[in-house]
Amino acid sequence: MKVDVLLGLQWGDEGKGKVVDVLTPRYDVVARFQGGPNAGHTLEFEGKKYVLRSIPSGIFQHGQINIIGNGVVLDPVLFRQEAEELEKSGVDLRSILRISKKAHLITPTHRLLDAANEKAKGGKKIGTTGKGIGPTYTDKISRNGLRLGDVYHNFNEKYATLRSLHLARLATLDANPGDELAELESKWMDAIEYIKTYQIVDSEHLVNTLLAEGKSVLCEGAQGTLLDIDFGSYPFVTSSNTISSGACSGLGVAPNKIGEVFGIFKAYCTRVGSGPFPTELFDETGKTIRDLGHEYGAVTGRERRCGWIDLVALRYAIMLNGVTQLIMMKSDVLDGFDEIKACVAYKINGEETRQFPYSIEEEIEPVYVTLPGWKTDMTRMQSEEEFPTQFKAYIEFLERELSTPITIVSIGPDRKQTIVRK
Questions:
Q1: Residues 93/59, Cβ–Cβ less than 8 Å
Q2: Which one of 4, 13, 139, 310 is the catalytic residue?
Q3: Catalytic residue flag (residue 294)
Q4: 92 catalytic, yes or no?
Q5: pLDDT of residue 41
Q6: CA angle 345-351-352, nearest 5°?
Q7: Cα separation values, 148 from 107, 257, 366, 418, Å
Q8: pLDDT grade, residue 177 (50/70/90)?
Q9: What's the whole-model pTM score?
Q10: pLDDT tens-place string over residues 236-252
Q11: Which residues are CB-contacts of 391 (< 8 A; sequence separation ≥ 6)?
Q12: Out of 4, 21, 28, 41, which one is annotated catalytic?
């Protein structure tokens, strides 16, 4: 068996949580392979709304195994809050969730460092969520990190060493945690005891054993391709590999075990926080898209910047990930527009290119194609046969430009508002 990978192709917030929830009935296992509680995967069904930060989005279906992989960074306090909310809603989480021993832990001082580092940048802030993700991955790469499996191996000594290192760094940034740290640590240590009540496993062995047994596995990514640490709009990126190869390192799966790659994108484009955004709209159209799409961060509540779809960036993301199937989200947000624009090329220093450049911080003029809007409420439609002609033309246009089939179209936030195309 091979694993299928599902990930975002833009700057995150594409709607991955809903799609994982919709696809989960096809799979025996759902595994998260990177990111941390800066993710906010939103699911809506039966009149309720759930936001998942660290726990995979497959937990609401039919008892499939869900795995938090080694590539994830985990905050025990936030995990506990999330898990207890799910348990209150009736999810038997302990029976279906497995957590990798090799997942790195976000400590209280990681969060303090995140805030201090961002403050020190002044006007050059990255726009992090302040959850301690960056400092945790920094410690991982510098070989100072604390892993979940360490709770069984000289944990207090390892924690004290890391804590001292962080306090020294905070002092150089003129950040004195004071009494705040003691309170944070008390909650954190209690949460460590809570997390120990779950099944903490060698997830790389578990995933490969399940594959050998013929089980189907869906790998769930967080954030989006354009936030990848290597290939995103650096330095305004996240701290992990968000592309499909991240599933290999984040779960211990060999490259030849990758099967289908589902790439998710919105019918338009959004971005949260700082960083370049070539197709961003600063006018009433951008505000209208934000309001209709409820474009506010699921974790932070921050307004998302909105713009027309960027096909230069999408082609790049499809190439990097080896996408085999596209999934278009939030088509319904554009239901009322007279015209829809799509960026098909960039003009840089007077020269037109269809390739994503080394840096998009320089002056880029998007080259747009204008298509007629469909002016139809699609939210109650049950099949693609009901799609208006102009919307079908929009899909066909995108498939030609992207050379990849669009197999699923979302026409609303609920899991029922999902059209699987024939």
A1: yes
A2: 13
A3: no
A4: no
A5: 66
A6: 15
A7: 11, 26, 45, 37
A8: confident
A9: 0.91
A10: 998 899 999 999 999 99
A11: 331, 374, 376, 378
A12: 41
